[in-house]
Amino acid sequence: MSNALKRQILRHIEATGPMSIAEYTHICMSDPSHGYYQQQNPIGRTGDFITAPEISQMFGELIGIWCIEAWRQMGEPEAFNLIELGPGRGILMADLLRAAQSTPKFLEAATVTLVESSPKMQELQRKKLGDQCTWTSDISELPAGPSIVIANEFLDVLPFRQYVKHQSQWVERAVGANAEFSDLEFTIGSGFIDSRLLPEGAEKEPDGAVFEIAPAREAIMQMVAEHVKEHGGTTLFIDYGHTASGFGDTFQAVLKHEFTDPLVAPGKADLTNHVDFFPLIKVAKATGCHTFRPLSQGEFLLALGLLERAGNLGHGEDEATQARLKSEAERLALPGQMGDLFKCLAFASTKMALLPFAIDD
Ligand code: SAH
């Protein structure tokens, strides 16, 4: 498949040599003319991938209940920011705000800010949420004041780097071109990694082993952690990934709900990798925030009452509705579905009893 962005990337490589995977994914996702998130709508049944809020209203509702609990633990501030990073179509926030109608004081105190870099996605969010929210496209412009920051499937879209073991050395994996400069292919770049960043056992890994880091993710986590530390607040990040660093190539491309080759259709497929939460927890701790032992999405949602919520919604409804709610709950919480691959990471400016998390430092 040939496309304008692919030709642009090939010309760039011809002129300056192979590019890092971070640069490649950044161009594919954010190029102002052909970038993935400049398309009309990548999310949902008619798009490329489905996220938890798109699967069930219960996801956003339970996060709403969690936010109310977080607000209580923060001492019920009369004014605070409810901030969502990368809100997609705005469904999570809409479900959250509806569930929070049970606690009017929480809603009166909240100023909702959505952080969204894509003008196209902002447009969809405005349609869904109207004037209940304000927007910023730049995460370095978080509003001052106590804040609850939430993000679902946001960290995975941020650029990452890969290092591959090549002739017993860890060298950066890069995107280059074939001899005719007509197709993209993986190659060895010129960058090396500081060996202190490698997890234990790196010397035992065979040639071809891959290690991933995401400095851009860590930088954003630091910004959020510093904001929360300075102004007070809590955060909740949900994403697919692991809580202990390890080796392995998790670079993935998804097009119309199918995995595809990440180099075949730049700007057309969603490019992500699995989030390594371990360095992010370290960043939050180093900033002076209190972190909590991460929970799997299944543990988190079940502890917040997913089954009870499904039961309430299904009460008095027909069998088809009850079956749909059951299958939504299973998809969100069962191991082998989203329940164990997705993790929930929370941290806060001070030590607090932030249910359903346990304090771990
Ligand atoms: N949270 C949503 C959408 C996940 S997709 C859901 O669960 O359905 C990722 C979202 O992050 C999209 O809205 C995308 O436009 C946005 N995004 C990507 N990079 C961003 C950045 N650097 N800053 C802010 N938003 C970003």
Q: Could you explain how this protein is built, in words?
A:
The protein is of the alpha/beta class and 361 residues long. It has one domain: Rossmann fold (3-Layer(aba) Sandwich). The chain has twelve helices and 17 strands. The strands form three sheets. Strands 2, 3, 4, 5, 10, 14, 15, 16 and 17 form a nine-stranded mixed beta sheet that branches. Strands 1, 6, 7, 8 and 9 form a five-stranded antiparallel beta sheet that branches. Strand 6 (161-166) and strand 7 (169-177) form a beta hairpin. Helix 4 (57-73) crosses helix 5 and helix 8 (215-231) runs parallel beside helix 9. It starts with a helix and ends in a 13-residue tail after the last strand. The model has no long low-confidence stretch (mean pLDDT 95). The structure holds S-adenosyl-L-homocysteine. The site of S-adenosyl-L-homocysteine has 19 residues, from helix 3. S-adenosyl-L-homocysteine binds next to helix 3.
Provide the fold topology:
Blueprint (H helix, E strand, L loop, with lengths): L3 H13 L2 E2 H10 L21 H4 L1 H17 L6 E6 L5 H9 L4 H6 E6 L3 H11 L3 E4 L10 E6 L8 E6 L2 E9 L6 E9 L17 E4 L1 H17 L1 E10 L9 E4 L2 E3 L9 E3 L2 E2 H10 L3 E2 L3 E2 H7 L2 H9 L4 H15 L8 E7 L13
The structure holds S-adenosyl-L-homocysteine (SAH).
